[in-house]
Every structure is written in C-alpha cells, then in structure tokens.
Amino acid sequence: MLLAEQDRFSQQVKSAPAKQQSSKVVINSGELITEIAGGANLVEGKQTWEHAEEKKHDIEWMKKCCDAELRTMEKTGLAPAPYYFERVAILSRKEKNYQQEIDYCELYITMVR
Questions:
Q1: pLDDT in tens, 52-96
Q2: Residue 81: CB partners within 8 Å, gap ≥ 6?
Q3: Per the confidence metrics, is the pTM higher than 0.70?
Q4: Beta-bridge partner residues of 20
Q5: How many other CB atoms are there within 10 angstroms of residue 48's CB atom?
Q6: What's CA 101's distance to the chain center, in Å?
Q7: What span, in angstroms and rounded, lies between the C-alpha atoms of 2 and 18?
Q8: Which helix (H) or strand (E) holds 74?
Q9: SS percent in the chain: helix, strand, coil, step 5
Q10: Listed residue (14, 41, 20, 15) closest to 30, CA to CA
Q11: E strands, 1-113, where?
Q12: According to the UniProt record, where is the region Disordered (predicted)?
C-alpha cells in the first residue's frame, strides 16, 4: 500500500505545474507539497516546519501541526512528520495528561502502518 501511495505522489509531482523564472524552476519541496496538497500542510499560512522551533513548547500549536500533517498525508500519501506527535506526547506527559500522550503516540503509529 505504501508503494502505491508513493507512486501516486510521484505521479502528482510529475504532473504539478512548476513555477518558473526565466528557464530555472524556483519552487522548493515544501512549496510543491503545499501546491499538491492544496495548502493542507499549512498552519495559519505557514508550513509546519516553520512553527517547529518557535512553538515547540506550545501544545496547542503542536496539535495544529499534527492535524496539518495528517491532512497532508490524506492528500499526498506522504507519511506525517513524527516531530509534532512526539512534541505533543512530551508536553502531555509534562502536564501529566498520560491518556493524551498515549493517544497521540497510537495515532501516529496507526497512520504510518
């Protein structure tokens, strides 16, 4: 199943229109994923990785990033980045919210299987 998803993503990448300036393609991988996913990987207008350092201690922001990663997975077939799920688990444990810690760990494992 994973190979089929990767193949589907490869086909989308090949068929996605490239932004060009002169004869050079000027689009990075994050922008390409944003285009293919229809913005599903954005949290308040920014890609999830742009929030990683600044918001890493904010559990609500990390949950928003988890949601964006899952939406991106649904649209592209790419596995979600584990970082945001790990941060929610760590922050949940610090808050002694053990059920939430388990829930986010299980959610990630379920989604990448």
A1: 999 999 999 999 999 999 999 999 999 999 999 999 999 999 999
A2: 48, 49, 69
A3: yes
A4: 25
A5: 24
A6: 19
A7: 26
A8: helix 59-76
A9: 65, 5, 30
A10: 41
A11: 20-21, 24-25, 42-43, 46-47
A12: 1-20
